[in-house]
Amino acid sequence: MFTTRSFRSFLPSAIRMLIHDGKRARGTSGMVGGYKQAQIVILHKFLADDFEKFCHANSGPLPLLYRSQPGEWKCTILTDNSDIRTDCPQYCKFQCGNFTGYKSDLLEYTKEMEDMTTFYLGCSFAFEQAILKAGVPIRNVEQKRNVSMYKTSVPCREVGRFQCNMVVSMTPVPEGKLDAVAQATHPARDVHGAPVHIGHPGLIGIQDLSRPDYGDPVQPHQGDVPVFWACGVTGVEAVQSCKPPLAFTYSPGRMFITDCKRNESSPVPNTDPAETVQTFCISQNPLHYSVASAAAVQKIRALECHIGADPGDRGIKALFIQDELLKASLCMSHAASVLITTGFPTHFNQDPPEETDGPPGAIAMAAMLQALKKQVAIVTDHRALEMNKKIIEDAVEQGILRTQVPLLSFQDDSQDSTLRFLCQDGNPQTPRYDHLVAIERAGRAADGNYYNMRKVNIKHLVDPIDTLFTSASTIPGIMTTGIGDGGNELGMGKVKEAVRKCMPRGELVACDVGADFAITAGVSNWGGYAVSCALYILNCCPIHDRYLRKAVGFPRHSEQDSWASALPTVTKEEKLLEILVKYGIRSGKTGNLGMEVDGLPFYDTHSAMIQQLRDITLQPVAMA
Prior knowledge:
The protein has 624 residues and is α+β, with helices and mostly antiparallel strands. Helices cover 30% and strands 19% of the residues. It is built from 20 helices and 21 strands. Strands 1, 2, 3, 4, 5, 10 and 11 form a 7-stranded antiparallel sheet that branches. Strands 6-7-9-8-13-12 form a 6-stranded antiparallel sheet. Strands 16-15-14-17-18-19 form a 6-stranded parallel sheet. Helix 8 runs antiparallel to helix 16 and helix 16 (524-540) runs parallel beside helix 20. The mean pLDDT is 93.
């Protein structure tokens, strides 16, 4: 038995010779730094075509380096001299999908292997050197252990008889090094590439990090975050699912070492924004990070800057928190089900009392969420359900929405009413919604009342939807966003101290109920338009798309036209404002029944903002 450290400086051919001569390695992580290592799957030739398709359909865990001919022992594309029957440190034998033992070599199966095909798959051990060069520690190498590997709940794309869930490897990484490790591994697509998950293991079906399914447990340091990469042990799971009469794989952690050097990153950092990975924390409970390219981040920050215009000169910049739009949109991009609420009955002496700010932004977000194939519903006041139903029907008829959006109301009439509304069977372990979004929704003040900006208490017109947001803060997995333009809107309690200090009448009217993210806009509708645009930008970003897919399946290029058609346009928003006016909904500031929002004319104030947001969103990414 030889160790990693004792042969770290040896050439790959020398290591293979030692293995060939019967000296076994405990593991090849940290060995022959900078050279590619390969995971091995050996199957009957009749299964080879399907397995190759399975690899291409799941290229994150199974990046195919080479497919041999039946009975081909050498692999000249990867080594000068090798024999796949003897040059892995250890093999696993499977019969009808069942593991039947470890083998030090496969020479006794030479006859059977004449009808078998060998697949060489890229391994993340090959980018360890790049990780170290980026200043990121590799905990399992430090601790002289095999890497930790886990089965997940993430299904691979099925091909023929091959169907299984993905396996991942995990390395604890200091929080301040997450950008560095993601960027160091992103170019290495032939050896698993960038991480597929960063954060709580339960989000991908892993229950206990101290009990890996393969490899050794690795101890994190204080401040480390679990980072997961797609892993080639997925091939072992695929073999077991297929149940062939005879198959062989490498033993997890003990790879075939090639003579191919990794194409390490240039000493000059990659300055192409489209290829620069950035990480962002989008949830603390459970801990969850997302990723996007610097190009996508720059665009979303430009959107955030534009919607921060203050046409009424009310001082809303005091409420601004950078990257709230970005983080909220990243979080929504990961959500499967989103609940939106809107409705601010500021005109208490009119029927209906609602204003034209809020519903257009809510519908713009709903349209994009529909296009992204997410579940979306709207909750609003019970007294306004029938009117909102007609608005939605008209929006579908006018082509503003593709399909109806379910409309709900909520009454806090029992001790467990919020749990039953938010979660399946009232069980906080199974939330019905992943994200709640409030846009221009009347928010509860510190004294329990609801105020418009003229200090009028409108509590009698507002259902207690705030309670859903306060309860959501106690349920792991439900995130919340508030979008507002004055500080008295639901969710803006996150910035309530700034509202009280800087906004007119803020001491009384400030919403006391916060959200995880608070998006400030000159007009709340603009915030909804910006979320729609940001979701489009993120899902068109290859780096974010791969992370969403967990590197299984194929890029969703074919869906981008469908997403683009869901973006807000001047024409669609004009039609929607006409629908609102038709039902007697008035401008918030002036009470006018006409083509204006918050006292600002649709042309050329709101129309110009919509076009500017579209121009930013659809502008081609500039190359460095």
